[in-house]
Amino acid sequence: MSVTAPKGFRAAGVVAGLKPSGNRDVALVVNDGPSRAAAGVFTRNRVRAAPVLWSEQVLKGGRVRAVVLNAGGANACTGAPGFQDTHATAEKVADLLDDSAGEIAVCSTGLIGERLPMDLLLTGVDKAAAELTRGDGGLAAADAIRTTDTVAKISFRQGAGGYMIGAMAKGAGMLAPSLATMLSVITTDADLPAETLDRALRAATGVTLDRLDSDGCMSTNDTVLLMASGAAEVVPAEEEFTALLTEVCADLTRQLLVDAEGASKAIAIEVVGAASTGDAVTVGRSIARNNLLKCAIHGEDPNWGRVLSAVGTTDAVFDPDELNVAINGVWVCRGGSFGDDRDKVDLRPRDVTITVDLSAGPHSATVWTTDLTADYVHENSAYST
């Protein structure tokens, strides 16, 4: 049931005419309480879409009654008129719910640099409000936020005492987040304050969604929202809730990874033996963004030299003569030089694991990426035309 798995939430996904395909393109998720506690993380791109600027202000209050999302237009780089459009969208939802626009979050995704057709969008909001349900509404909402995603992405888990966490996400390109990735709405009927939700969300996304780096391109619209209704009347321990939330975010991360635009390989880059977690993440991201290596993996060529080259561009602590690299379990590089025969590496499976041992400390991190394919280039060669 996606975001409607927890009690206290209704959702809808409708066709408003924003997508040329005629598919669903407006989603609405409403928290009926009794609590409205919420938290959010957003892109660190300095070029922020109007909905991000609006929702950041909303989340400062720690309360969200509803979030309205649209695909078919990012409302980014649209100036003051674009921000006014976001405000008008929030006001529309607030009017329909007899509530305050200051507790309505807004998310948009799609082409940058064009204003949204507000007549279509606001009519879609009307329609979504009329179709809110706890039944199929969550699945419809998850479907409505897709752009180049081939499938809707949902996840849910049940915690001790019977509370639930439900989630939906979209993202297939521009997956190189900082704090968040593309659009995601997570709901829970646990009874937790905004401060706890914020800590839990940052901890969970920090080791999951934030480490998905498929193409090195950071979106202007990245948003992850966590809303709590308190309807289950369960107050879980923060550590327990964070662990369950991390499971949900990890599930979403995997779904985003395998549906990345044009990808034929899902690559896990495990960096171990690092002097710090920061070093491990830095090295992992450098490898994930190395186009030569991504091409090699697509061609099923275990070219470990490209891994070492990427490691060497970072400021991480390591000795080049103590680097070790394994590809799908075969240690092809030992001590900064050749190791086992690279012909032993089997790169035919979709899942590929690259392990880099920096031999510099006890810390580790995993970053996920994909290969670079002709399909990816084709899909992004004429996105706006």
UniProtKB/TrEMBL annotation:
<comment type="function">
    <text>Catalyzes two activities which are involved in the cyclic version of arginine biosynthesis: the synthesis of N-acetylglutamate from glutamate and acetyl-CoA as the acetyl donor, and of ornithine by transacetylation between N(2)-acetylornithine and glutamate.</text>
</comment>
<protein>
    <recommendedName>
        <fullName>Arginine biosynthesis bifunctional protein ArgJ</fullName>
        <ecNumber>2.3.1.35</ecNumber>
        <ecNumber>2.3.1.1</ecNumber>
    </recommendedName>
</protein>
<comment type="subunit">
    <text>Heterotetramer of two alpha and two beta chains.</text>
</comment>
<dbReference type="GO" id="GO:0005737">
    <property type="term" value="C:cytoplasm"/>
</dbReference>
<dbReference type="Pfam" id="PF01960">
    <property type="entry name" value="ArgJ"/>
</dbReference>
<dbReference type="GO" id="GO:0006592">
    <property type="term" value="P:ornithine biosynthetic process"/>
</dbReference>
<feature type="site" description="Cleavage; by autolysis">
    <location>
        <begin position="180"/>
        <end position="181"/>
    </location>
</feature>
<feature type="binding site">
    <location>
        <position position="147"/>
    </location>
    <ligand>
        <name>substrate</name>
    </ligand>
</feature>
<feature type="binding site">
    <location>
        <position position="181"/>
    </location>
    <ligand>
        <name>substrate</name>
    </ligand>
</feature>
<feature type="active site" description="Nucleophile">
    <location>
        <position position="181"/>
    </location>
</feature>
<keyword id="KW-0068">Autocatalytic cleavage</keyword>
<dbReference type="InterPro" id="IPR042195">
    <property type="entry name" value="ArgJ_beta_C"/>
</dbReference>
<feature type="site" description="Involved in the stabilization of negative charge on the oxyanion by the formation of the oxyanion hole">
    <location>
        <position position="110"/>
    </location>
</feature>
<keyword id="KW-0055">Arginine biosynthesis</keyword>
<keyword id="KW-0028">Amino-acid biosynthesis</keyword>
<keyword id="KW-0511">Multifunctional enzyme</keyword>
<comment type="pathway">
    <text>Amino-acid biosynthesis; L-arginine biosynthesis; L-ornithine and N-acetyl-L-glutamate from L-glutamate and N(2)-acetyl-L-ornithine (cyclic): step 1/1.</text>
</comment>
<comment type="pathway">
    <text>Amino-acid biosynthesis; L-arginine biosynthesis; N(2)-acetyl-L-ornithine from L-glutamate: step 1/4.</text>
</comment>
<keyword id="KW-0012">Acyltransferase</keyword>
<dbReference type="GO" id="GO:0006526">
    <property type="term" value="P:L-arginine biosynthetic process"/>
</dbReference>
<dbReference type="GO" id="GO:0004042">
    <property type="term" value="F:L-glutamate N-acetyltransferase activity"/>
</dbReference>
<comment type="similarity">
    <text>Belongs to the ArgJ family.</text>
</comment>
<feature type="binding site">
    <location>
        <position position="380"/>
    </location>
    <ligand>
        <name>substrate</name>
    </ligand>
</feature>
<keyword id="KW-0963">Cytoplasm</keyword>
<feature type="binding site">
    <location>
        <position position="261"/>
    </location>
    <ligand>
        <name>substrate</name>
    </ligand>
</feature>
<feature type="binding site">
    <location>
        <position position="385"/>
    </location>
    <ligand>
        <name>substrate</name>
    </ligand>
</feature>
<dbReference type="InterPro" id="IPR016117">
    <property type="entry name" value="ArgJ-like_dom_sf"/>
</dbReference>
<keyword id="KW-0808">Transferase</keyword>
<feature type="site" description="Involved in the stabilization of negative charge on the oxyanion by the formation of the oxyanion hole">
    <location>
        <position position="109"/>
    </location>
</feature>
<feature type="binding site">
    <location>
        <position position="170"/>
    </location>
    <ligand>
        <name>substrate</name>
    </ligand>
</feature>
<dbReference type="GO" id="GO:0004358">
    <property type="term" value="F:L-glutamate N-acetyltransferase activity, acting on acetyl-L-ornithine as donor"/>
</dbReference>
<dbReference type="InterPro" id="IPR002813">
    <property type="entry name" value="Arg_biosynth_ArgJ"/>
</dbReference>
